[in-house]
Amino acid sequence: MAALKACRLAAQTAAEAPTTTTSLRHLRIASSAATHSYPAYADVERLQGRLQRALLSWKAAAAAAAMATPSAAAENTTPSRSSQLPAPPAPSLISFTPQPTYTLGRRQTAPVDDTERARLTAPLTVFSSSSPSSRAETASFTPAVVNAPRGGLATYHGPGQVVFWPVIDLHSPLHRNFSVRDYACLLEKTTIAALATFTAGRLRGFTTENPGVWVRHGETAADGVDGAPAADNERDERKISALGVHLRRHVTGLGVAVNFGMPVSGPEAMNPWARIVACGIGDKRVTSIAAETGAATAGLDVTIGQEADSAAAELADVWAAEFATRLGLPTAAAAGSTEEIRLGAMGASLPAVTLERVIPEDVD
């Protein structure tokens, strides 16, 4: 069995945690399980790229202003607002459920051959509810296969999952600062806390030497604390959330994906995980919130009390609130800064909007 670890964030003093009224900007990308309408992974990448460029441009301007201000350059500090430097962009979080997509990490050094690509892109049946049933409506998708600038091997993103991509500057003056290692831990601890809150303590996540968040079937939040593994290591470890990040000048990209209500067993025609060895870990199973909490066929059960679409939105808001708190920011819900936006060709019921309306491209 792999050695287990508890993710620990380095302590931060009160002096190191900025006092700010800035709130986390939560961009919740609209989708609909009922109509099988989901944004394309590539469209969300474009939005993420625009947010990243805004932060990178501000950092470049701040560095230039610091060099032009001898006292700031000598002290290696950000120049004051009186230097006419615009305020830094607010930290952002994108949450979304994409069309079926397989992503290949940087460890995927061998190219995908024609046979493997045909297997990955074979038609995939997607259900309108959290688990297959005679009452669930279906749709057929051809999964996309894309390269991702993260570590690791192949993984899957698609319906029945909620993906979280924070776009923040790890060294921002607006919120707590993090090392790269602490940032990965931040994502894992945020996910662990969000799972416990969202399921009312019915799921207890923990971390291992492998990235991401794991659960054991039948184990609840009362069985352990602070993301540490429980004493009983014999129970089945299952991965419920994948983690993969990319950094450029301490500006973050990608993030975590929480398996919400997708098939995690069964044939390749409907179970996307059957086509790959998820993240290259062949001896571990993948699971979902629905599988671990005993979901009803029409959505999550009455304990959670929401249909699939509204429950996924609720999970996104819970995760965003937890992340904002751990950044030392007001929660997005309290600040009224959650925005639902629609991207790409998502059907008549979900018309597209341009990225220009989300963030102006005036930073290049």
**Rg, Cα atoms, Å:** 21 Å
The CATH topology comes to BirA Bifunctional Protein, domain 2
* CATH homologous superfamily label: Bira Bifunctional Protein, Domain 2
CA-based shape: globular
- Strands, total number: 13
Description of the molecule:
- The chain has 364 residues and is an alpha/beta fold.
- The chain has a single domain (27-62, 88-330), classed as Bira Bifunctional Protein, Domain 2 (BirA Bifunctional Protein, domain 2), CATH 3.30.930.
- It has helices at 41-68, 70-75, 114-120, 180-198, 289-293, 308-327, 332-335, 355-358; strands at 25-29, 92-96, 101-104, 124-127, 138-141, 144-147, 154-157, 161-167, 213-216, 237-248, 251-259, 285-286, 338-341.
- The strands form 3 sheets. Strands 1, 2, 8, 9, 10, 11, 12 and 13 form an 8-stranded mixed β-sheet that branches.
- A hairpin with a 2-residue loop joins strand 10 and strand 11.
- The radius of gyration is 21 Å and the shape is globular.
- The N and C termini lie far apart (49 Å).
- The model is unreliable at 296-306, 345-357 and 360-364 (pLDDT under 50).
Layout of helices and strands:
Elements: E1 25-29, H1 41-68, H2 70-75, E2 92-96, E3 101-104, H3 114-120, E4 124-127, E5 138-141, E6 144-147, E7 154-157, E8 161-167, H4 180-198, E9 213-216, E10 237-248, E11 251-259, E12 285-286, H5 289-293, H6 308-327, H7 332-335, E13 338-341, H8 355-358
Parallel strand pairs: 1-2, 1-13, 3-6, 10-12
Antiparallel strand pairs: 2-8, 3-7, 4-5, 8-11, 9-10, 10-11
